Amino acid sequence: AQSVSQHNHHVILSEAASLELGCNYSYGGTVNLFWYVQYPGQHLQLLLKYFSGDPLVKGIKGFEAEFIKSKFSFNLRKPSVQWSDTAEYFCAVNDPGATNKLIFGTGTLLAVQP
Amino acid sequence: ETGVTQSPTHLIKTRGQQVTLRCSSQSGHNTVSWYQQALGQGPQFIFQYYREEENGRGNFPPRFSGLQFPNYSSELNVNALELDDSALYLCASSFGSQAGYGYTFGSGTRLTVV
């Protein structure tokens, strides 16, 4: 069964620091990959997604992610974080056996200190 | 365009009771997916409703059931509540049943079972 691992549960950074959040999935076939963000008190929002094509995906608010098939990874990056990036970040992948189902990681709570 | 509205926002129930959670989908969307997010976990897929029928179910028992109405809004019903049902219940609407594509999430209903 497909699974998603986010190894960083809690990350604390200072403003202007670079960010990389890890995401690994288990299924080796064709996958659709997503990063969602949940700002304090708000609903989950899509940051970026990968379906096919260029493995370097650019999303909103300066975020990007790189799909590395050989490593089963889809890490999220941002060169310079801001205090407003404080949020919880979830990696998700489609279930290969059920195209209507997303499998989420446990999330990474990012705190950016001004 | 309107977003996804979930009601109520918070709810406290006693073990053994029944609960109904509601979701109004975004304008133009015809699919509703329900997810359960336990504390410290990522969202887990409960089921999806597409064209008023259940279109896939996750690993949840039959006491979790749902409905979709002609206006594409949806209900999640949980019977015989257990303490472990305490969680944030998220509704996501989309156009079409493919997971994650064009998902708009609601802010969720926080259910506490005592």
Concise overview:
The complex is a heterodimer of chains A (114) and B (114). Chain A is mainly beta. Helices cover 0% and strands 53% of the residues of chain A.
Write up what this structure looks like.
The complex is a heterodimer of chains A (114) and B (114). In chain A, strands 2, 5, 6, 10, 11 and 12 form a six-stranded mixed sheet that branches. Chain A has a four-stranded antiparallel sheet with strand order 3-9-8-7, with no helix packed on it. Chain A has a two-stranded antiparallel sheet with strand order 1-4. The termini of chain A are far apart. By secondary structure, chain A is an all-beta fold. The mean pLDDT of chain A is 93. Chain A contains no helices and twelve strands. The relative contact order of chain A is 0.33. Chain A is 0% helix and 53% strand. In chain A, strand 5 (33-38) and strand 6 form a beta hairpin. Chain B has 114 residues and is mostly beta strands. In chain B, the strands form two sheets. In chain B, strands 2, 4, 5, 6, 9, 10 and 11 form a seven-stranded mixed sheet that branches. In chain B, strands 1-3-8-7 form a four-stranded antiparallel sheet, with no helix packed on it. In chain B, a hairpin with a 2-residue loop joins strand 5 and strand 6. Chain B is globular and about 40 Å long. The mean pLDDT of chain B is 93.
SSE topology sketch:
The complex is a heterodimer of chains A (114) and B (114).
Chain A: E1 4-5, E2 10-14, E3 19-21, E4 24-25, E5 33-38, E6 45-50, E7 56-58, E8 64-68, E9 73-78, E10 87-95, E11 98-104, E12 108-113
Parallel strand pairs in A: 2-12
Antiparallel strand pairs in A: 1-4, 3-9, 5-6, 5-10, 7-8, 8-9, 10-11, 10-12
Chain B: E1 5-7, E2 10-13, E3 19-24, E4 31-37, E5 44-50, E6 53-57, E7 64-68, E8 74-78, E9 87-94, E10 104-105, E11 109-113
Parallel strand pairs in B: 2-11
Antiparallel strand pairs in B: 1-3, 3-8, 4-5, 4-9, 5-6, 7-8, 9-10, 9-11
